[in-house]
């Protein structure tokens, strides 16, 4: 494997000159720069990113820990974060935790070893006191874990209100919220709070159906919804906590010969691409993924620069009505 010394010898310059080219430090003539790049190309030399970070005293790497890239919301979130990070001159190391606490810890230690400049945490099984040990600029998604650690979230309570009110306004009188496990301390739980509050205020019958702890185990959605209809065959409205859950609800309704939206109306959440790709197209509460991603990157950079930041960062959601209501 070629070294920086090999590049210097081939280009006919000093190792210091090659280092300056790699790190864009000091004055280097264009002719010298071209010679160094040509030598690197001919030798197939790959600079050591970690060594460069240590030399500059600043890393251009960020860590992103999500539950699973297989979920449409987190896939779109990861793509958006990477795009905004790249625009700011950073690269992203993507980690899938599978909601495994030990795996989250291992990834954080790995990111520290790679000298990342900051971490965006969108998977939350670690205890709050464990986050305090990270000692890096940190932004969390959808969870408030301390007075000094900034978080980014959409307005989950507003989303729950919009979904529930729409179902009732459309004539639903017996509704259910299919959601993640409420024992997890997530801001997304406010969707169910809003669902319950709104249903009570408007005098309709309501039920909350929770998944297992691993909310991203999609096979359970269909079973939960089948059981829901077995117990409540006259159910006429479903508020699903994700677009994937809404897809499962559509499938179950089709199997049970329930017409959408005539017999059952369905509202999803996130408004990922899948909402408009399936038939019938899903009415969904849109989380502003691009704005949330840009804000998360901005909050990390502000922390790196020792600037003042806002801990609470909650963005409004939008209702996109389609064919399921």
UniProtKB/TrEMBL annotation:
PROSITE patterns: HTH_CROC1 (PS50943), HTH_LACI_1 (PS00356), HTH_LACI_2 (PS50932)
Single GO MF annotation: DNA-binding transcription factor activity
Gene3D superfamilies cross-referenced by the UniProt entry: 3.40.50.2300, lambda repressor-like DNA-binding domains
Domain annotation HTH cro/C1-type: ranges: 3-50
Matching Pfam families: LacI, Peripla_BP_3
Native species: Capillibacterium thermochitinicola
Source taxonomy: Bacteria, Bacillati, Bacillota, Capillibacterium
SUPFAM superfamilies: lambda repressor-like DNA-binding domains (SSF47413), Periplasmic binding protein-like I (SSF53822)
Protein name: LacI family DNA-binding transcriptional regulator
Domain HTH lacI-type, first and last residues per copy: 2-56
Domain of life: Bacteria
Alphabetical UniProt keywords: DNA-binding, Repressor, Transcription, Transcription regulation
UniProt keyword annotation of Transcription present: yes
